[in-house]
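Project standup — Tuesday

K.O.: blocked on the structure for the chain from last sprint. Re-posting the sequence here as requested.
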Amino acid sequence: MSLPKVKLADPRALRGYAHPLRMALVGLLRREGPMTATKAAAHLAESVPSCSFHLRQLAKYGLAERVEGADGRERPWRATALMTSWDNVFDDPATQAAANQLNTVILDHYVQRAQAFLAQRESEPPAWRELTGLGDSMVYVTAAELAELLGRFHSLVAEFDQRLTDPSTRPEGVRGIGIIQLVLPTLPVSQPTPPVSPATPPVSPAGPPASQADRRKQSPSGAGKTSAKARRGRKAVDNGRGSAR
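H.V.: unblocked you, prediction finished:
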């Protein structure tokens, strides 16, 4: 199934969403359903005026909207979609700067979520402690292969999309699990090795200059060589889990 999505493309909307409380409000409305600013403030331990202001700002960017209330007094708010997306590359410098700002705030949000989880992890049941945590994997892929890999991963996660919109499909014992995706290149683009001038004599790291006979015995093949262990892709695994979405 295809989840309702809001795509941000205007720099004002990108900057407008780049606010921790606004992200928290959108996430709350998506998880818990429509609620008033008063109820949202109680959930997030924020003031009612602050939540009211930021909900109105979210409405300006199409991320939240008013719905009819049961008692006709304070009208609840609801999220307009279950997902928010934006492109990573823009031709317009102002829009690109706004997207970069939003990505930075999102990253801070992810770090805070991870820190909050680690702070209370010991209180989790053993089965959940075993399966949750941090980790990463190294892969060597082309851009096309990476696109295919991400597509396959997203397809796997999409198998559970119906549980987001229909609670009756959730089996006993389920929990909401945040799978955080960080796709990061760890190696710089290869640069050509600059040629070594034949006029430059070898430099000894310590001691007197090598004699001509000693220099003939020296081999430059080992200079700057990286060990096989360092070249291999490493995998830091916490309790057997790799990196997340």
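K.O.: great, moving the ticket to review. The beta strands are 5-8, 64-66, 77-79, 83-86. The chain is about 45% helix and 5% strand.
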